[in-house]
Structures are given as C-alpha cells and as structure tokens.
Design brief:
38 helices, 34 strands, elongated, eight-stranded mixed β-sheet, eight-stranded parallel β-barrel, alpha/beta, binds adenosine-5'-diphosphate, about 900 residues, binds magnesium ion
C-alpha cells in the first residue's frame, strides 16, 4: 500500500524557465522571503497574504506555499480536477519547502509534516477545513518518535491527523472518531485527552484506522503525496459546502472568488508543557478597549482552542508560564498592528518555548468596538480621520443604536449565572435549543435566544435570526463568540453553570429549570444571564438624540459623532430622510439628515381620528361631499407639514401627494361581510347596517385585480384633482405661516408614479394654480418646487420630456424595481430563495439595487433629465437609500442626495463618505 516515498525531482522547465508567460499558481514563503505580499489577497487569500507579509517582515513563520485562488477556480472549471500545471507547480514548491525545512515528506527517518489550510480573500471563520500533521503514516510516526524522543507526542499527532483527514477528506462523520476516543478514555479512566499515554493513543490509532476501513471503505492512505492531493482537493471542495455557501450569502461574499490553499510546515504546540497554542487580538474586539486579549492552551494543537472542547486560559497567564515567548509575542503583535494600522487577530504556536506566528489578519469586531478602535487609532496618530472613515463598516454604526436594558428592570432580577461577555448588547427572548427552531420560531414572529452547549458552523442560520446567543462552553474566541461579534449579535459564551440538554430542550442553572419557550435575558457586555423577560430601552445614542441625555456624558455618542463628522467632510452626496411625522423628522435631523427626501402624506391619513374623515372622502359619491371631507383634513395636514418643515430648520422637504389606491383606507371586504352577517343574524337593522352595506358596495367598486398597477399615484390626482388641491393648500399654507414667523422653508411638491409628461403637466397646473391662490390670500410669497418621482420605467426612459416640466426628480427605486423586474415586492418571498439558490439573483433586488437593470434606468433617467435641465436636482428615496452598496452606485450615478429612513441616516452618512473616497482614486 505505502508507495515509494522518494519522488522524481520536478522538471526544472515546468517551474521557472518559461514562467514569465504562463500564469503562476503557487507562491512560496520561507527563509525571510515570500513570493507574495499583503496586496495579494485576491490571489493568495487573506491567510496566504498575511503569511507572506509576515515572512517578508522577518517574523518567525514556518515556511510553506500558497496554492492560489486561481487554481481553485480552475479546479471547478475543469469539473473538480486539478490541472497538471498546478500539480507540477505544487510539487516544485514542495521540493523547495523540503529544502527549507530540512526534512522530507514521508521520510521515515526525518519526516516533514505540513498543515493544509483553507484561506479565502474574506475570512470565513470555521466555514472551511484545515488539516494538521499531514505526512503521518505508520513509518513516519516511528521516525518522529525517534527524533523527538517523545512517543506520546508522535502518536498523538498521528491520531489527530487520521481524525481530521477522515472527517474532511474521506467525509466520515466526526462522531465516529469521537466515539472511539471517548471509549478509550473511558477504559483508561482518563478525563482529558492529555491524560492518555502513548499506549492508549496507539489503541486510538488502531481504532481510528478501523473506522476509516469500515466507514470510508478503504485503508487509511499511507502515501503522503496522495494525502496532500486529497487534502488540497478537500479544501477546494469545502468552498462549496452548505455552511460556506450560507455564510457567503449572509455576508454578500461572491461565490466566484474561490479559496486558496496554504501548505505549511507544522510546528507543534503539543510536545509537552513547554509548548502551547493560542489566538489573540491586539485590542478587545468586543469593547474596543486597548488591551492585549486572547487565550491559549498548554500542550495542545490548533483547533483545540477555538472548538470549545477544552476551556482555554486567558493570555495574560502566558506571561507566567512562558515569559520569554509571551514578551516576544507582544512585541511582534504590536508591530503588526502598527504595520497594518488596524487591530490584529493572530494565531500562534509555541514549540518547546520557541514562538511561531501562524496567522494575522485585521480582527473582526463588534460595531461598538469598531467605532471605539477607529477613534482611538486617530487619537494615537496611527491613522488619519480619513482612514478611520474608510475603516469602519457602515453597518457598525447601526449596531450602536441597538437597545439596552432598562437599568431598573434589569436590576430587579437576580443574576442566574455569568458567562464570558463575547459580544455586547441587550438580549431578551424565548429560549430555543436548535438553529432550526430559532428560524422557525422567528418566522412565527417570536424573539428567541439560541441556547447551545457550543455552536458549530452549521448553526449559522439560527444565530443569524436569534436576538442573542448563549453557550455553556467555549472561550472568547470560540465559534459562537467570533460569529456573534461579527453579526453584532449579543452573545455570551462559556456560561459553564448552565446544564444544557439540547435533546430535552431545556437547561437548568442554580436549581431552576428553563424549558423551551421560557424567557431568558442577558447582557453581552457584562456576561450576566437572568431568567425572565426584561424590557429594553434605547441606546445612549438614541437617548442623546432624543434629548434625554447630554452628549458630553456619553462616551459612545461622542465617538459616534466624531466619526460621522469626519465622514461628512468627505461625502459628496446629500443625506435626507424618509419621514412623515414631525417627531421622525426631528430624530432624522438629530442623526444628521439635512432635508426630507420623502414625506408620504397618506401616512398622515392614518393618524388618530383621521381615518373616518378619509373614509367619508372616499365614500362621497359627489364632488361637493368629497370637498367637505377634504376641508376637514386640510387643517390636520397643514399642522403636520408645519411640524415637519420646522423640524428641518430650513432644509428642503419633499412632500409626495397621495400615492396608494384608495381601498387601502377602507376595511377589508371579507371583514365587512362577516360584520354584516353578524349584524343581520342578531337582528340589527337601521342606519348602522345601511352604512356597512354602503361601505361594502364601495369596497367592491374599488376592488382591483392588480392594485399595484391600478388606480393610484398621479392617476388619483388626475381623477380627483380636489385631493391634489387640498394637499397643495395644506403645504403652501403651512409654508406661508412659517414664512410669517421668519422661518425659511422650501417645499418640494412631488407627484408620484408619473410615466408620461402630460400626467405631470396636468397636476403641475393644479399645484401652481392653488399655490398662487394661497400666496395671494396670505399676502406672502414662498419659494417651492414641483417635481416628480421617477419610478415607472417609461418615466425613466422619457426623462428628457418629463424634465421639461419637473424641477426635480426623485427615483422611487422600490416601485422602479417592481416595475422593471415585474416582481411584486410583497410576493417575491415565494421565489427569491430559489432564485438565489440557482444563482439567478445574487441579492434581494429590493434591498440592494440591481445596478445592471434598474440601475441603468436610473443612469439613463439622470442623463436625459439633465440634458433638458442641467440644474435638475436628482435624488433617490427608495429603501435602497440606506443600503451601503446601493449608495456606492448612487454616488457613481451622480445623484445629488440619498434619502433613507431615520435610523439608517448614520449608516448612509458613513457609506456616502466611503463611496466618495473610493471614487477619488490616488490619495
Ligand atoms: P482557520 O482558518 O479555521 O482559523 P487555520 O488554517 O488557521 O484555520 O488553522 C487552524 C489552526 O491550526 C491554527 O490556528 C493553528 O493553531 C493550527 N495550525 C495551522 N497550521 C499550522 C502549522 N503549520 N503548525 C502548527 N499549527 C498549525
Ligand atoms: Mg486561523
Ligand atoms: Mg412608489
């Protein structure tokens, strides 16, 4: 079975001689020099580029080589086969590695062992696979034993390798191996893996081989090169495992970029008590505090720390046990932070007191920490304000708005237990014990806390929907902690006092039992867990914005405001808000919106006591009655507009005339029929019953087969001009009143759903006539604009004609997306999943603008509109206005502003700055 170990030397011609013309697929690093560097993440992946950069910087990195992401793409292109050119380059680099390491793969006397590690451009913690100790076989295990004089270590390395190779390459369920390990531990009375001696481990190896034979239907491969090829291909394959695909969907990472494979000489943290392995951060990734942070395990290897099977020690303890290595680690990581100008997340191994760096990358952090770190790095003069603006993910600032517990309600409950505070935030919800349940319960509208012994990468869908994540084992760098932080999800890990029965769907702590559905609350900043429901309250930032707290008393608010004011310096796009009520407008203003991009007047119709008046207006069968009802609405609308204008302090306010079909203001047909049937059954007659019948008749009259394409928008104004008249009057009267008070206002009256210039012309005439009347009555002149929403494809296509009448455009990208795709926004849920699975659509086009189709209508609309009217003001007011990647598109499209919902304003400010900075290349 074991093939000959010595291989033919690779042909020289294949590697170097004709290299310039052919593409390079494998990059070497070692002996202080690397083929790649930090700029090559696309090709080498994040891990590979970090290893190269650290090697070039002279840091102690075990030598190795990186098989590029291009090779991964080729592998898929060729139907999951590695082409000969990649194979040749790999073998050539292996020879180089053997030389650098002074050992040979498969050499019985002096074996080289390697790790085979995945590594894509974007880090995807735990989503893909890594194999350690490759090169172990029945012969090399004895060679390793002889060389190291450490039989236990040699056999432990072998059993780990069989386990990882079996699971990852041969796809044998992990449990099958765990089961055997447990059995041996039990028979020897061992508590921990480290209690097993060489003989016991040899028994584990024998059992593992039997597992491979029975479950994998083959002998465990003894040929190291076959092992290497198998591991490499398994890493390529793991790019497309279900959890990696799900992860990429959530984080919007393209499926097409592939992963690199890093093959690296092994160093050993499991040779004994002078060895260790660990992970860490240069700052606290949960709070952003400047403190050395991390965990390690003595006498252990790689995955032991992150998998949560053994609870690691805090890194400060390392100073006591291995002081020299600790000091060197601090030096190196401080240097790395200065070099990368960002918090570093690093992995290291200490072999017999010698430190090796195995990974460094910019650390994932909570939104809270992101803002703290960026503002601190500026104070420390490590980065400029501009770099700080580019460093923070816009979604981070929205995490800062998440609720916190009401302190009184929180204090009222006793602390049930404390765990490690992995990701800050207040979480309260019903306990569920599986990721699938979390998804199902959330679908039913419940808020859940996902409670697990430890999370595994397959739980990602449940973690995504839960209010918070609570685990019993694992450290601050366990899977649950890393993923929780990245999602901005409150998380507590390692709450060891919880006795969790996942199958029994319950846990107990301190004598109390919590069953599925019972309420649990916890504070991800302190690690305290409480049993029961606790009311949450707005974050400090919201309290400052609402005037309930002073800005100077809130550290987080000061940092938030500092960062956003830097962003304001760099952005070109104006930021407005979608807001219909004065209080919303005030919030938006406090968040930095300077203008309203969309005030939906119909929302005002739903205000208290208004709906009966609106219904009377709709039920009127003649113009006179309709006007009577409208006259009642007039002062109410005028009051709203007055408030909204005032809240905007002289910034422009775009008010849209009525948009939805009228039946939306009436009860549902089915409900009315039930009510009528009930009244008739109980013998009720008279006026009430007559009115219900009348209402039902009108509802039936207004019924439409397709309301989205029905009697709505400008079509309403054209058939009932008195509605437009009333709304114009309310707007201009409010503006005149404010003008008299010395407050400047610039109303922008916006007609929705225009597809033909003549529609706009018709309504504009109404607006201008009424506006002139009002100004004459009031004896004041106010400036106002009339414009339109561009949301019907015909409107975008004929924008040059429409611009002759419109003084501004606002792209209504919600309707424009509906009408361009022909997808109903309310029904897309039925097939979007299938579209994404089949890669017909990458993203939900209602969340992130489809730049190719809908986007080209926007571009076309802007171009044609400005051709007719060079000073045309153009904005966007669909949901896309608060979506960072859509904002990048609007920057490129040359819009004047984006309008977003009030709570998205901070995100939009930061995203707009990043968009502007990336357009200006070269600085
Ligand atoms: P992940 O991307 O999931 O973090 P890695 O490829 O970084 O996976 O591997 C996980 C761990 O395995 C590392 O943190 C390290 O402890 C260990 N490891 C990887 N390569 C080596 C090596 N050459 N020598 C020793 N340990 C290694
Ligand atoms: Mg790693
Ligand atoms: Mg619309």
């Amino acid at each position: 079975m074991a093939k000959k170990l010595a291989r033919k030397a690779p042909k020289k011609a294949a590697s170097s001689k004709k290299a310039p013309k052919t593409k390079k697929y494998v990059y070497f690093f070692g002996n202080g020099k690397a083929d790649g560097d930090r700029t090559m993440k696309d090709t080498l992946g994040g891990k590979g580029s970090g290893l190269a950069e650290m090697t070039n910087a002279g840091l102690p990195v075990p030598p190795g080589f990186t098989i590029s992401t291009d090779a991964c793409m080729l592998y898929y292109k060729e139907g999951r086969k590695v082409p000969a050119v990649v194979e040749r380059e790999m073998e050539a680099n292996l020879a180089k590695l053997e030389k650098a390491a002074g050992a040979k793969l498969g050499d019985a006397a002096n074996p080289l062992l390697v790790s085979v590690r995945s590594g894509a451009k974007f880090s995807m913690p735990g989503m893909m696979d890594t194999i350690l100790n490759l090169g172990m076989n029945d012969k090399t295990v004895e060679g390793l034993k002889a060389r190291t004089n450490n039989g236990r270590f040699a056999v432990d390395s072998y059993r780990r390798f069989i386990q990882m190779f079996g699971a990852v390459v041969l796809e044998i369920p992990k449990d099958a191996f765990e089961h055997e390990l447990e059995a041996v531990k039990k028979s020897k009375g061992a508590h921990s893996d480290t209690d097993l001696d060489e003989a016991a481990l040899r028994e584990v190896v024998t059992r593992y081989k039997a597992v491979v034979k029975s479950k994998g239907k083959r002998d465990f491969p003894q040929d190291p090169l076959e092992q290497l090829r198998g591991a490499r291909d398994a890493v390529f394959r793991s790019w497309n495992n279900a959890r990696a695909i799900e992860y990429r969907r959530i984080y919007e990472i393209p499926d097409s970029i592939g992963t690199a494979v890093n093959v690296q000489m092994m160093v050993f943290g499991n040779t004994g008590d002078r060895s260790a392995t660990g992970v860490g951060f240069t700052r606290n990734p949960a709070t952003g505090a400047k403190e050395f942070y991390g965990e390690f395990l003595i006498n252990a290897q790689g995955e032991d720390v992150v998998s949560g099977v053994r609870t690691p020690q805090p890194i400060t303890e390392l100073e006591k046990v291995l002081p020299q290595a600790y000091r060197q680690l601090r030096q190196i990581t401080t240097r790395l932070e200065r070099h990368y100008k960002d918090i570093q997340d690093f992995e290291f191994t200490i072999q017999d007191e010698r430190l090796f760096m195995l990974q460094t990358r910019n650390g994932k952090r909570t939104g809270y920490a992101a803002v703290v770190i960026a503002t601190d790095l500026v104070s420390e003069k490590l980065i400029t304000p501009k770099e700080a603006v580019l460093q923070v993910d816009p979604e981070s600032v929205s995490q800062l708005l998440a609720p916190v517990f009401d302190p009184k309600a929180w204090k009222a409950l006793p602390v049930a237990t404390k765990g490690l505070p992995a990701s800050p935030g207040a979480a309260s919800g019903q306990a569920v014990f599986t990721a699938d349940d979390a998804v199902e319960w959330t679908r039913q509208g419940k808020s859940v806390i996902l409670v697990r012994k430890e999370t595994v990468p397959d739980d990602i869908h449940g973690m995504f929907v839960a209010q918070g994540i609570l685990t019993a084992t694992g450290g601050m760098t366990s899977h649950a902690a890393v993923v929780g932080r990245q999602m901005g999800k409150p998380s507590i890990v390692g709450a060891g006092a919880l006795e969790i029965s996942e199958s029994g769907r319950k846990f107990s702590v301190g004598g109390q039992t919590i069953k599925e559905g019972d309420f649990v609350s916890f504070d991800g900043l302190t690690g305290e867990v409480k049993l029961g429901q606790v009311a949450t309250k707005p974050s400090e930032i919201l309290q400052v914005v609402a005037g309930e707290m002073k800005a100077k008393d809130s550290d987080v608010y000061s940092r938030f405001e500092k960062l956003l004011s830097w962003a304001d310096k760099y952005r070109r796009l104006g930021i407005r808000a979608n807001a219909d009520q004065p209080d919303q407008a005030e919030t938006a203003y406090a968040f930095g919106a300077r203008g309203i991009g969309l005030c939906r007047t119909e929302h005002m119709f739903f205000g208290e006591g208004r709906i009966p008046i609106v219904q009377r207006m709709i039920l009127a069968d003649n113009e006179a009655d309709r006007r009577k009802a409208l006259n009642e609405l007039l002062p109410l609308q005028r009051g709203d507009f007055y408030g909204v204008f005032k809240a905007m302090h002289g910034n422009p306010v775009t008010i849209r005339t009525i948009d939805p079909p009228l039946h939306e203001f009436l009860p549902k047909r089915e409900d009315l029929m039930v009510e009528i049937a009930k009244m008739e059954a109980t013998g009720k007659t008279g006026k009430d019953l007559d009115e219900k019948h009348k209402l039902l008749r009108r509802v039936e009259q207004l019924h439409e087969f397709n309301p989205m394409l029905g009697h709505r928008g400008v079509r309403l104004g054209i058939t009932y001009p008195e509605i437009t008249e009333m709304q114009t009057r309310a707007i201009i009267e409010a503006a005149c009143q404010l003008a008299k008070e010395g407050i400047k206002v610039v109303p922008e009256i916006m007609i929705p759903l225009v597809g033909h210039v003549k529609e706009l012309r018709d309504q504009k005439a109404v607006v201008e006539r009424v506006a002139a009347e009002v100004m004459k009555e009031q004896g004041v002149k106010v400036k106002y604009l009339v414009g339109t929403m561009i949301e019907v494809p015909r409107g975008a296509v004929t924008a040059d004609e429409i611009a002759a009448e419109a003084q501004f455009f606002s792209f209504g990208t919600n309707d424009l997306t509906q009408l361009t795709f022909g997808f109903s926004r309310d029904d897309i849920g039925k097939f979007l999943g299938a579209y994404q699975d089949r890669k017909i659509l990458d993203k939900d086009p209602f969340a992130t603008i489809d730049t190719v189709g809908v986007g080209s209508l926007v571009m076309e609309g802007v171009r044609k509109g400005r051709k007719t009217r060079p000073d045309l003001k153009v904005g966007i007011c669909g949901e896309h206005g608060g979506d960072p990647s859509s904002i990048h598109f609007f920057e490129r499209a040359g819009l004047d502003y984006v309008s977003a919902s009030p709570y998205r304003i901070p995100v939009a400010r930061l995203a707009a700055a990043q968009a502007a900075l990336q357009v200006k290349v070269g600085d």
